[in-house]
Automatic annotation (TrEMBL), chains A, B, C, D, E, F:
UniProt-listed InterPro entries: HD/PDEase_dom (IPR003607), HD_domain (IPR006674), NA-bd_OB-fold (IPR012340), NA-bd_OB_tRNA (IPR004365), YhaM_exoribonuc/phosphodiest (IPR050798)
Keyword Hydrolase: yes
Residues annotated as domain HD: 163-279
Keywords annotated in UniProt: Hydrolase
Keyword set includes Ligase: no
SMART domains named among the record's database cross-references: HDc (SM00471)
Pfam family name, one: tRNA_anti-codon
Name the UniProt record assigns to this protein: 3'-5' exoribonuclease YhaM
Length: 314, 314, 314, 314, 314, 314
């Protein structure tokens, strides 16, 4: 385990650089101001209290600043909380930058791009290949940067690309087991299904939903994008409709955000591959934090279950 | 009540012209071929049996033909069924045409168009007005022809336009009661909300779903259309997004086909106006068929309820 | 915007008269007693802390007293909270009274009564008219005083009458659009549907549920009342049953408190008119508090949605 | 097992008197008229076909006539169906009457009345006792005649009284086990809970729902009746409200027709005693028809389950 | 009412012996350590704060220690909380023991065992009797000690045996009312249905779930145990299967933990008897704490309802 | 496409050998007996009518007989139905046997066994390996014969083994993608998860549910079996519990028959692999029957969806 803010124990002291993710002013019952900070580095995050602040503190210790702190970790209402003893802003000479404090995909950006390009290269249906290539080209930069979700799964730098590449690997094997599957269609669906998140989410550092994301959501955004791209490329034919359907139906059910359920074999498969990779990502990261014989914290996005790590895991 | 196939009584004889809506060949238990026809005129429809057919009958009495028949109406498994005694194809000299056998909106096409134009004229926001005008212009012809749904409500010629115009009337009054409401936005939402049905449904006579209708549905189709129209007109700004949201959310809930629920005041209102007009259309037509003191048949699209017509209705 | 406790900003000072809605004694972790007060005026309410109290304070600053305070508004756990610096009971010479601190309907009581009377006057069915008139006469006083609900919508003085009169306006227009609707029945249903709340709710100032309200609810209470009134007036006939059905079914579904769903056209319409007016009341008041480009707080009674106010609203 | 129409086997002949429960005219595919009769006696019912009828047959063999028939029992679409060979109306000299063909409770009417009277006699709370006594006196005649439901459970002559008396027996024992229970209240609730069915259901022979039953249902009808009775007897006090609550809440949940769930101990108990007796009645009668080692037919009102009778029974 | 920690009033002082159920260290906003203790005696439990602790306090006042305290009961966030003034560990000379501070069934252990033995003695089917006897013999000790659940109902010493014996009493009476019921089967089902809890729950004092309890649950554990016992006793035949089915189905529905619903008459009855006794136990204990005219606290396991105790209860 | 009864077209004649799956006697409206047969061969099944039968026919043409027929395929109520013209029992000299008329897995029995053995061989955890090996050894014969379900998916000879082997292939790849997964555990779960079906289902030819299957279901049966096997092999330790949990939770949710949801990583994965392979099996077989551009029949076990086969599938 990397040492960092995400690997704290109650009772530990901590000294080092962290990024301020959120900063809120409060007042104690005695009327004294203090700051509640959410601090993070690449290993996780923690809530911290800075007591007895002055006006300058308030204006200096704000969101997205890097700071050097010294504090101790206590328990407050069942959760870890840091009490900050000393604090200072990072200086240029400290040689630290925002990117150092953000979690990244376990696979390099270049490798992710390579795998993506390879999959597109394998596609034989020219209509699908051209649409996919055009969209990937347009969004290449943010695609390699964005997380796959604001929270829950793949919520780290390059998370979306990492999610796509993992899904492509599963798809490749399922196409071998079930040769009836149309590989081009499945690949295209996997690559495009979540690209709408690049418009739905605000970015990488403190990811939130954009207005367009809240009022439309990534699915309708992407259905429109595919239509536009096909129009621009003067591609007509059932491929366009089926690709739009793949994206539209990939959440599986109306209640989950797909007004039309999967009605094409590859759309059904896309839905399941998406589910498996999202759930395994959540699960693996949660289990990584506990020892054999322990249960994870409750995972909200997995029906609030708490998972067990058997003792025979070494 | 108009006399016609929809106003039959068990035991009646019937003689006249009707349209063949469906025609299916069957075989009796003795191995003899017969035709099961669904016949309709502007007042309704009935199932009919033509026994002892020959090969010519099969090829002649097909879908969308007008025929002159003589038969009697019996009860079969609790439903009315006609036994056809004599049958012949309509001749040009009979002076009948398909349009005569299809139900129409109770308001003339011209009047519907006039009301629509008037509403667009009243709009003050130029972005919304231009988008609505462009789409209505593009779809004017089918809009005045299409039903609002394949079944359940406004399922007659000009049904969609009739539905829109009724909703506009409700909207006008609600804008007076609640002056905070943005009338332009509500009008635009009402006019556009179901235009996607012109691509979702196959047409007027034997309305079914198109492939695009089945795989995407009228809501995503229309969200894309609004985006395209705005792009073509080089309109940018929040109006486009909000109009797309109005259409996207008008079914009210994910389970009912809106992946995003209404999050704008006028979207919420649009949803309710749509519901009221659809339900009143179903209800009025079902109650029109029963006498005071009776219950209607069960209305599937209204939670399978059977409604009562009080005896104090004259 | 009127200035008042409901229009506070974090960081503001406040000085003026307010009503104590609730008063609870607490003890700090140091064992010192303090009061948590909920304060209100006609614009809204706020939680406030009065630190370091003595025994007299406890017995003086109690529910439904008017006080003059001076304090400042801080943020506590994400919500506004006032810290009271000075406090004194209002004196007769201050010229303030409880009614000044309670929100009122935006329409005057007299006007509401007039509209109600007018609607009853329009009714032609003598049985319905007499029942409605008798009930309104019996409950006239509280009807003009009570809110329409303990919270969520029309929760202000005359709220119930305001709700009824708004619904009557919608009904009038719908009767014009759908001439098949029985106007007398719809009017009677609207006027009576929530009168049971006068027994279900405790009153106007700190509205809670009565024992009868908790164990029976306003719907069965009113069904019985209609039966009793008809008996007293020696009215028989289907009108009584249908009016009872209107009230019984107006929540639309068993899950929502109507053991029988609407089975009469006007009952269905009543349900929708009720929904629209309740929702628009909530929505308009929530949107009134935010600026264009902002979202409202989450509205619990509207599926916990947060609504957006477009920037093109001026 | 009693011999009768309810104990038929496929392949049996049948000769004897039966009651016509329903009679519907049909036409064969060859255009020949026939009658579909539902025939019943005290042991059950069967569908029967009378082929090749003439006009007189149609007008003679109608609902609620007793007939003497001779026929054989075949299987048609998986269900038993009788083919009638000879048929004649019963004559006065045959000495048969409608009551002979209707199922009755396994306990005599006099005994049921005696148990009821005994329970009322035991009650000590005068308010409850007087209300219960007045209502039972008013409805004594139909109460001893009516079924407890149109179908599913206790659907036989005196079924309602039988259901009440069984429930009282369970109540007596539970009051012993849980001495905190208010026996008067539980008894009163049991006796009154379903009396509204005497207005909800049309009668004993071909039980259907009355208009009042359909538009209000037995629960609100009975809440009103208790209120009226108390008013007539000039009884005031919490007993009236609690009795109304007992009736109102006895279906347990809003979805099941109780807008208020049980909020008083005895109301909760009433709900469960009602459930147990209804279910055991259904179950015992269904299991009575099968042999050890067999499953019953599917019981719709018990979640469509098919129950097993173990081989180690008798 | 017994005097004890469960019968506190806000404002009371308390002096006496209690058991520490939980002990957690916290830190005030000023950085000072304190202990939050959950204290209990046989009448209930309360949260308490011990301020200004030293290192020794931390290591001494831990779970399952008996202490003598003096404190006062305040209100904190709407709940009672004790502020401890003086505290000391109990001494051997105090003559108190853990068992004194734990709630017990209101029936003596010996009497419970006697009733159980009696019921087994009454059984006539040798297969069932031998299986039940073997299992009861094996588990006799914990059975007379364990609660019936970790919380909600019968959560006291001997709770499980008390629950079984109450259910047997209800069963005896229902067998009289419904003579078709197989008494042996019902008795066997009641006695065995929850024995799996002896493996699912950790014990009596601070009851939690075992790993086996979390991963399998008491139902599958007991199905396996019945199978094993029969195998050991060399009993074959349908009795084994039906007993396993009784246990498997006793929660009534898949959603409630029974993958197979009751499909045997006695299984259906077992489910209802279990429900009634569990609910009456919860309800009686909650109502015992309030005065006539009051409502209980919300009961989570009873759909979060708050029950009313009528004023006519003496 | 293989020629056979499953590849019929309306209007075709058919001549050949088929197996009688079901045989039911009926009576025409004229009182003449006939047989309704369900006929099958390895390609599918069809309903057929044999008119004008005599007593011998009835006793000869019964379930599981092979017959040679000549007939024609008509449409009856929207489904294909064969009218049999000539019929005779197969003779020994015809050289046909029951196994020829039953669908088989597309992979040979030997190959399935080999893959299974290979997977067991790869397992490194001795406890799991021994348990799996013992169970597979015990059930080897039926395992290679049984279908994986009575209908819906893999409902053919060796269907269960085919399902297991396909799942193992998916598992192998996922273990590569997610190296944290415990391969032994996942393999063991896959191999054991449905073995309980060998006791739940009656066999291969006319598969129905056994009494044990109906009253317990394959999941609890298998949990017990694993416990027994471990006991016999004297294996203790967490592996046994976790394997039981894998089987218990593999349906994913209580509503779907798993009283405990997956709480171990490999259990979650097992659930998804099971879902994918079952759905792909259904889907591939349904799509195999339609041409590009067509929709499949509605698939009940896939939420009643009808899937589309794109036209760009060659």
């Amino acid at each position: 385990m990397k040492r960092g803010i995400g690997n704290h124990q109650i009772g530990d002291s901590f000294e080092g650089f962290v990024l301020i993710k959120e900063s809120t002013k409060g007042t104690t019952t005695n009327g004294k101001p203090f700051l509640t900070l959410v601090l993070r580095d690449a290993t996780g995050e923690i809530e911290a209290k800075l007591w007895d602040i002055n006006h300058e503190d308030e204006s200096v210790f704000v969101q997205e600043q890097i700071i050097n702190i010294n504090g101790e970790i206590n328990q407050f209402r069942g959760k870890a909380q840091m009490r900050i003893n000393t604090i200072r802003l990072a200086q240029p000479t400290d040689g630290v930058q925002v990117a150092d404090f953000i979690e990244k995909a376990p696979v390099e950006r270049e490798e992710l791009m390579e795998k993506l390009t390879e999959a597109i290269f394998e596609m034989k249906n020219p209509a699908m290949q051209r649409i996919v290539r055009a969209i990937i080209k347009k969004y290449q930069e943010p695609l390699l940067l964005y997380p796959a979700a604001a929270k829950n799964h793949h919520e780290y730098v390059s998370g979306l690309a990492h999610h796509i590449v993992s899904m492509l690997k599963i798809a490749r094997e399922l196409c071998e087991l079930y040769p009836e599957v149309n590989k081009d269609l499945l690949y295209a669906g996997i690559i495009l299904h979540d690209i709408g998140k690049l418009k739905e989410l605000s970015g990488v550092v403190s990811t939130s939903y954009t207005l367009q994301g809240k009022l439309l959501g990534h699915i309708p955004i992407m259905v429109e994008e595919i239509g536009n791209t096909a129009k621009d490329l003067q591609i007509e034919g059932e491929e366009v409709l089926i690709l739009q359907h793949m994206v539209l139906s990939h959440h599986g059910k109306a209640e989950w955000g797909s007004p039309t359920p999967p009605l094409v074999r590859e759309a059904e498969l896309l839905h399941f591959i998406d589910l498996i990779d999202a759930k395994m990502n959540m699960l693996n990261r949660a289990l990584d934090k506990v020892k054999p014989g322990e249960f994870t914290e409750r995972l909200f996005a997995m029906d609030n279950r708490s998972f067990y790590k058997p003792t025979f895991e070494d």
